[in-house]
Protein: dTDP-4-dehydrorhamnose reductase
Amino acid sequence: MRILLTGAAGWFGAFALESLIERGHEVVAWSGRTQGERRFQDRSIVLEPIDLGHPDQERLVRRLDQVDPEAILHAAAIASADAAFRDPDQAQRVNVQATETLGLWCALRRRRLIFTSTDLVFGGSGPPRRETDPAQPSLTYGRTKLEAERRLAQVNPEALSVRLSLMYGLTRSDRLSFFDQVLADLAQGRPRALFIDEYRTPAHAPTVARLLVEWLESPTFPSGLVHVGGPDRLSRFDLVRQAAACLGLDPQLVQPSRMIDTRFNEPRPADVALDTTRLHALNPRHRPQTVSLELTSRKS
Structure:
């Protein structure tokens, strides 16, 4: 299958690209500004810089017509909360406008589309959130993702929006996540302070990437909205201590701190753990493991 991957140069995009190649797909890889190639196994994939936030969305449509993908995995985004806050107009163009354009293109041609959204469409705290629970984001980033979900549902009800929780895994690209940076510090014997009062349901990025690719391939493609997260509600402190222990690093270097004592540009939600009941109904074979098992069994 010829699959377009947006955000191919990003941290999660590298996991998605690897999974698509492993499963034998023809990949059209779009990046924001990054040029060059990505090599996986014996294949080299050229990254094509595409400005999804360009005001003239007809340029995007023309390029879509040229590459004519059979399916799209839309992972590109202004994904940093700080970046979205600093430039909300660009976040609106990339996160909302481009998603709507891709959705309409796929709807008119009956092509499959998976859009990666976020658990940060929720704010505040509460029990693990279901897809039907009201979303009230406190961050500009979360607001753009929620608007993108709603616009996509209007123009393409057959598309799938996937709300992803905080992800972890050892990077496959030159992009380092917060998780990678913390582990690098621990490996150098430098202590890191992490929040004990911010809760997510962390998911293993390579496992998530494989799941999304399997959905694109499935004879029964799901639509609508689904939550994807790991099996446990964890703080960042818990996540990194578990990862450090199974990777042979000193978990005592992970020190507790509190989000409530930290100043941000916008209020951060304290608990956006996701209920993944629908995920397991859609894919009963999907059995996410604990952080320790994921990292040790897959060495990633």
Remarks:
- The chain has two domains: 2-167+202-229+275-282, 169-200+233-273+289-298.
- Residues 169-200+233-273+289-298 form a domain with the UDP-galactose 4-epimerase; domain 1 fold (CATH 3.90.25).
- The chain has ten helices and 14 strands.
